[in-house]
Amino acid sequence: MGFDEEWASSKAAAAGQPVGTRLDGAYDGPFPPSGPGGDKDLNSSASRKKTAANDIETDFEPNTKKAGAWADEANGTAVKAFAGWATAAGLTKAQETWGKSVAALLGRLAGEKSALRGTTGLFLNNDIGVGNDFGPLVKPSSLSQVSPPPHS
Questions:
Q1: Cα separation of 152 and 150, whole Å?
Q2: I need a labelling partner for 87 at 20 to 30 A (CA). Which of 19, 34, 103, 147 fits?
Q3: Whole-model pTM above 0.85?
Q4: H helix runs in 3-85, sequence order
């Protein structure tokens, strides 16, 4: 079938169809009372950020280091067992890649921990800055300085 035939059949098929716009996959259920986003307020919890950063420092980082070291030891034993075989070279390459992956993960965890700890200060400074920006705008009107007329 050529272009002209396909175009003609497409036009013929569309002739019986109503023209309009239809959203595909729009949510049609009831929204929660606070709206589609869930939370009614934008908020940030300094204590939850601190807890998450501490969990990274006291749990994730040490356990990632232990897992990386354990895999290095197990792989080192396997490399010795397969000495002289092509498998040993493959295991050595896998160990190098694993070491890079562990180092990258530890770097990412450190970055997330630092970001969590720094975000609290950034939010606080941002709130203070916004408050200062609005401060001069909220001056009493000069009309509020005028005495009310005497009552008779």
A1: 6
A2: 103
A3: no
A4: 3-15, 46-55, 61-81
